[in-house]
Specification:
With 165 residues, this protein is α+β, with helices and mostly antiparallel strands. The chain has 2 domains: 31 residues, no CATH class; 115 residues, RNA polymerase II/Efflux pump adaptor protein, barrel-sandwich hybrid domain (OB fold (Dihydrolipoamide Acetyltransferase, E2P), Beta Barrel), CATH 2.40.50. Helices cover 16% and strands 34% of the residues. The chain contains 2 helices and 11 strands, in the order H-E-E-E-H-E-E-E-E-E-E-E-E. It has a 5-stranded antiparallel sheet with strand order 3-4-11-9-6, with helices on one face. Strands 8-7-5-10 form a 4-stranded antiparallel sheet, with no helix packed on it. A hairpin with a 2-residue loop joins strand 1 and strand 2. The longest helix is centred in the middle third of the chain and has 14 residues. It is globular and about 45 Å long. About 21% of the residues have low confidence.
């Protein structure tokens, strides 16, 4: 099974009512679960969520899963602004990196304008470095994940202002 077939399985599963899918072929096994912690997840397009306001904190000292929960709860609590922001979430479980290597500049910084298709970060999963691309244009308002820390599936990574182009 190749990488594109795995991506297609993820897309199909996302559109279906399936909650779990397991496939075994020769020496290859993959299990995808929806609604819980994925056992094995390969690269999928970055997901975005529109929020009424911005998260007020990044809970780096809290576990990756609860950090996502804390940030989303904070976003719901704050209703002081009418601006719409987009949260770019992690499409997979792995380690978050802002730059292609330690001696290079980050892909994006706060205040940068991004375009659809721009590389915004890397998530390392099982020694594979997956470059994550933006799916829209906007301005980076906040980086929500810490450099070289583990991230969970759908954990918020960036806060983007789509009107800041």
């Amino acid at each position: 099974m190749d990488f594109k077939q795995i991506q297609e399985l993820i897309k199909i599963m996302g559109k279906s009512d399936l909650s779990e899918l397991s496939i075994e072929q020769d020496n290859f096994k993959i299990t995808l679960k929806k609604g819980g912690t994925p056992v094995v997840v390969q690269q999928a397009p970055a997901r975005v969520v529109t929020a009424e306001s911005t998260p007020s904190q990044s809970a780096s000292s809290v576990s990756a899963e609860s950090a996502s929960t804390v940030e989303l709860k904070e976003a719901k609590k704050e209703k002081a602004t009418d601006e719409k922001h987009i949260i770019i979430k992690s499409p997979m479980v792995g380690t978050f990196y802002r730059a292609p290597s330690p001696d290079k500049e980050p892909f994006v910084k706060v205040g940068d304008h991004i375009r659809k298709g721009d590389h915004i970060c890397i998530i390392e999963a099982m020694k594979l470095f997956n470059e994550i691309e933006s799916e829209f244009d906007g301005k980076v308002m906040k980086v929500l994940a810490e450099e070289a820390t583990p991230v969970e599936y759908e954990q918020p990574l960036f806060l983007i202002d789509p009107n800041g182009v």
